[in-house]
Specification:
Radius of gyration of chain B: 27 Å
CATH topology of one domain in chain B: Rossmann fold
Oligomer: heterotrimer
Largest sheet of chain C: 6 strands, parallel
Strand content of chain C: 15-25%
Number of helices of chain C: 5
CATH architecture of one domain in chain B: 3-Layer(aba) Sandwich
Strand content of chain B: 5-15%
Number of strands of chain C: 12
Order of helices and strands of chain C: HHEHEEHEEEEEHEEEE
Largest interface: B-C, 97 and 72 residues
Chains: A alpha/beta, B alpha/beta, C alpha/beta
CATH superfamily of one domain in chain B: NagB/RpiA/CoA transferase-like
Number of domains of chain C: 1
CATH topology of chain C: Rossmann fold
Chain lengths: 266, 500, 206
């Protein structure tokens, strides 16, 4: 039975490469992965803004789309958190006992690093990414899901990758969904501190498990012309050594690495 | 002394002022950073911290779910121990009771132990109106009172002031209300504390009536507890002839033995100490020792409304430690005044709107949104209040109170709900965004990695893009790619680059 | 309706969701219990107590019953006017001490130090607890003077807060003291010495 990929609405429209990276990665690990086309959005933006009624049709859509799958994999800590911790509340709001039951019977949902480490039992996913990387543990991965050191263990096992410490790593970046626009000045003040810590880390690439937070931090880093790239964890883990005809010399290896970086390593 | 939170604008506007104040942000970052480290160290010493937190939460839940029983029991225990029990439905009633006690003793002043409940009901203002001076004796409260300022933190109300600001206030104001500060006062904390000692000493020694709150009230025995550091609490609780304690009805714990859990949780969470320097406990009147006339005012003032909210009820577990403020990234940057309430920070963002009611005031309705929902508050809360859960719950109440109003957000959420209710509609929306992506594919600005980005945009997008670049939408959605390539199976292996 | 009736009524209305048959005991509480001190670790507990009291800037002096008078004398050095509770044991009481026979607050303010015993000590937190029984004086007596010298017997030291609560009688007034008075109200920088005694000396006997 295949596992269902919940790509998330944001990745679907804005970051399809993240979804493709998950597909590449899971297939490489021998997983039969499917994308149920009926999926849309888990409803988190509505729930976190207080629009529970508006989330009800999305919940129905989600449950129908993923019914019958063995498990659901999602490359987002906050969407995983929403499915796990908020869907029941939405179902109860609907007043439909059938919907509550459907939530209880829905397949288990795993954030990507949880699926890799806990379900597949792998830490070395065979990736190659010769860059200096720092990791931002997004709040919902860290505190709502408790993914712990799973993402950094995965990153440490990537060949060529050097993981550097992010100062004040566990502090929120300030994205927070609609918080980013409703309280934009506070959000930006938080993000500016996060961006500063990223620069201080000396990393070339900032990695996280949520593209929402990365859009916020990356938007600030890009505006500051910091030169730091942001990438989803899935894209780093999907990257492999480029196939090169002749055995490269050391200098070529290095330039191949940076070409992979600027060209969008997969 | 007339500072008031009345008229505080909605949180985003109030926060703007604080964010622009670089001195304030430095003061707050320094202070909260210090206390976070201290808390982490002493919490780390306790092997069974999680079990203690669970016990604290469960004990408070037990109390709250049977609060009527415990209140009646507390009243009986207190009366038996020689105290007089009063009940106050609201702030005005509580203030009247305190004023009456002071008047009966013919005094024109009271000394006060730091108390959130009396801040909440505006007792000092009520006493002033009755011609009675209320002297705050906690150092931070004294700084706030002398500076005609407002509290900005639950534990350290003057956290927004640094040492040189405190020195200025002491030099300028102390002489107006009693013993002046020495003219050669420096800004070392030790000297500032010594100035406060000298200034307040005469007040402690002559006051006839003291007013306090209580950290805990034990239903079984009628014992009240006040946890403090400076000894001002002991002075107020011991020297005057008359003591009035204003106690929120959520401060109860069932039994004497239950107190130990909270005496472990509170100091470590609050000041980051294994134990605070002084804890005073008293049970009614002790002949020959301390006040011989003891009053306890049991205060509702909105607490029963909080109790009626099954999700929000957990906020009444709060023991006012302020750990949630100290870890909150929003509080650290906006300070306490932005919340427009004596209860700032994450706990204030849930407690204030529940105490005063949701859906009728823009400022109150803005508080549940004053959070990125990062969850750091829940992680440190010694009584496990799931603040993010309550924030989301209150957002729902705010939205429900304004349903049907033609607000941009209401319309946007309805539209999004419609589009996401059906994958075909979602796909259609994505085709539009893909078309935008195609038009903008030649954008010159590139983020590292090659993804095209847009700079500052006009209109409503400015809230995002004023400081943050915006990625150009993908030309092809994931959904469209999956359909076109049969999930990538018909795609050439190395043909998927360059989309970013 | 009286305020009492109205508030209790509001509470009952607010708790409509709580089943009528539920009792307080139905809300389960699992808590860590007191950590009893065994004969084997009694010395460690006392040692920890001494360390933790000192951690909060109190002076701790370990002494035997034999050398207590010597240490007591040096602890009281520089205290011209010493106050003692009227029922302080004779063997602890210096000859020229002032007995607290309900001195007025103003009189209390003229003494320089006070000498008492304690009800117990708590090792985990470095706390001494007074229940203001014999030898401990009334509450004001250990508050107004600027130096508090407190004699604690090693066998009075318990391991943790839970053990202390279990031993204490809440009908008595209780004062828990962990170091001299202090404040962190200025920049959260801890400073010792505000309104309570600025010097705390604990003589730990045995």
């Amino acid at each position: 039975m295949p596992v269902g990929l919940l790509v998330t609405c944001m990745n679907d429209a804005l970051f399809p490469d993240t979804g493709r990276a998950v597909v590449t990665l899971l297939r490489r690990l021998g997983v039969d992965v499917d994308f149920p086309a009926a999926q849309t959005c888990c409803g988190q933006p509505m729930v976190n803004t207080g629009y529970l009624d508006e989330a009800v049709p999305l919940l129905r859509r989600h449950l129908e789309a993923f019914a019958g799958y063995e498990a659901v994999v999602v490359p987002s800590g906050s969407c995983a958190g929403s499915v796990r911790h908020q869907h029941r509340m939405v179902a109860e709001r609907s007043g439909d006992p059938g919907l509550v039951r459907a939530v209880e019977e829905a397949p288990p949902v795993y954030e990507l690093s949880e699926y890799l480490v806990d379900v597949l039992g792998v830490v070395d996913v065979g990736a190659y990414f010769p860059h200096r990387v720092t990791y931002h543990p997004t709040c919902h991965s860290l505190r709502m899901l408790g993914v712990g050191d799973r993402p950094t263990r995965l990153l440490e096992a990537v060949r060529g990758l050097r993981l550097v410490e992010l100062p004040e790593a566990t502090e929120c970046c300030g994205f927070g969904g609609t918080f980013a626009v409703k309280n934009s000045e506070t959000s930006i003040a938080m993000g500016a501190d996060k961006a500063r810590h990223v620069r201080e880390s000396g990393a070339e690439v900032l990695v996280a498990g949520d593209n929402s937070c990365l859009t916020h931090i990356g938007g600030l880093l890009s505006r500051e012309r910091s030169g730091v790239r942001v990438m989803h964890l899935a894209e780093v883990l999907a990257s492999t050594e480029p196939v090169i005809e002749q055995p490269p010399r050391e200098a070529d290896r290095r330039s191949a690495g940076s070409a992979a970086l600027t060209g969008g390593a997969r | 002394m007339s500072a008031t939170f009345l008229g505080t604008p909605a949180f985003p506007t109030a926060a703007r002022t604080a964010l622009a104040d670089t001195q304030l942000r430095r003061n707050l970052a320094h202070a909260t950073g210090t206390i976070r480290a201290k808390r982490a160290a002493v919490v780390g010493e306790v092997d069974e911290w999680e079990r203690l937190r669970l016990a604290g939460a469960a004990l408070k839940d037990r109390t709250l779910r049977h609060l009527d029983t415990y209140l009646a029991q507390l009243e009986e225990s207190l009366t038996r121990a020689g105290a007089t029990v009063h009940w106050a439905r609201d702030a005005a009633e509580a203030n009247r009771i305190v004023v009456d006690v002071a008047r009966r003793h013919g005094t024109d002043e009271v000394v006060k132990v730091k108390s959130m409940a009396t801040q909440e009901i505006g007792l000092n203002e009520a006493l002033e109106a009755a011609g009675i001076h209320a002297w705050e004796t906690d150092l931070a409260e004294l700084i706030v009172q002398l500076g005609d300022d407002l509290p900005s933190h639950i534990l350290v109300p003057a956290i927004h002031r640094n040492r040189s600001e405190v020195r200025e206030i002491f030099l300028r104001e102390m002489g107006r209300y009693g013993k002046a500060a020495p003219r050669d006062l420096t800004d070392t904390p030790a000297e500032l504390a010594a100035a406060a000692r000298a200034h307040l000493r005469e007040k402690f020694l002559r006051a006839k009536v003291a007013v306090s709150g209580a950290n805990f009230a034990v239903a079984e025995t009628g014992t009240l507890a006040v946890v403090e550091s400076e000894g001002n609490g002991r002075m107020c609780l011991t020297l005057p002839e008359v003591l009035v304690s204003v106690v929120g009805i959520e401060k109860l714990v069932p039994t004497w033995a239950d107190l130990d859990v909270f005496l472990q949780l509170l100091p470590r969470s609050s000041t980051g100490e294994r134990m605070n320097p002084y804890t005073s406990m008293w049970t009614g009147v002790t002949p020959g020792d301390g006040p011989q006339e003891v009053h306890v005012v049991l205060l509702d003032n909105g607490r029963t409304d909080v109790l009626a909210d099954e999700v929000g009820r957990q906020a009444l577990r709060c023991i006012r430690c302020s750990a949630c403020l100290n870890v909150c990234p929003v509080y650290e940057r906006t300070g306490g005044h932005s919340y427009g309430s004596v209860y700032p920070g994450p706990i204030g963002a849930i407690l204030t709107p529940m105490l005063r009611g949701v859906g009728h005031d823009t400022q109150l309705d803005s508080l549940p949104y004053a959070s990125s929902l990062c969850g750091a508050c829940f992680e440190v809360c010694p009584v496990r209040i799931d603040i993010p859960e309550v924030l989301v719950h209150l957002r729902t109440k705010v939205v429900d109170a304004h349903r049907g109003e033609p607000k941009v957000q209401n319309l946007a959420m309805k539209a999004a709900s419609w589009a996401f209710a059906d994958a075909r509609r979602t796909a259609a929306a994505e085709r539009i965004s893909g078309a935008v992506g195609k038009v903008l594919r030649g954008t010159k600005r590139r983020a590292p990695g090659g993804r095209g980005v847009l700079g500052a945009l006009p209109g409503p997008a400015a809230a995002w893009s004023d400081a943050r670049d915006v990625p150009v939408p993908a030309q092809e959605s994931f959904r469209a790619w999956w359909a076109r390539t049969d999930g990538g199976r018909t795609e050439q292996q190395n043909g998927n680059g360059g989309a970013k | 309706m009286s305020a009492r009736e109205e508030i209790l009524g509001r509470v009952r209305t607010a708790l409509r969701d709580v089943p009528a048959v539920e009792t307080p005991a139905d809300v389960a509480v699992d808590r860590p219990g007191p950590r009893p001190t065994t004969r084997d670790d009694a010395a460690d507990v006392v040692e920890l107590f001494a360390e933790r009291v000192a951690d909060y800037k109190a002076t701790v002096v370990r002494c035997t019953p034999e050398d207590l008078p010597t240490h007591l004398a040096s602890a009281l050095d520089g205290v011209p006017r010493l106050l003692v509770p009227a029922d302080l044991p004779e063997d602890l009481r210096p000859a020229d001490a002032i007995l607290d026979e309900q001195l007025t607050t103003a009189e209390l303010d003229t003494v320089d130090g006070v000498l008492t015993t304690a009800a117990l000590g708590i090792a985990d937190t470095g706390t001494i607890v007074l229940d203001h029984g014999p030898g401990q004086g009334r509450r004001a007596a250990t508050l107004v003077p600027d130096r508090h010298v407190c004699v604690v017997r090693a066998d009075q030291v318990v391991a943790d807060v839970a053990s202390a609560v279990a031993r204490l009688d809440p009908a008595r007034p209780l004062t828990w003291i962990s170091g001299p008075s202090a404040t962190s109200d200025i920049e959260l920088d801890r400073v010792e010495g505000v309104h309570g005694p600025r010097t705390l000396i604990v003589l730990l006997v045995g």
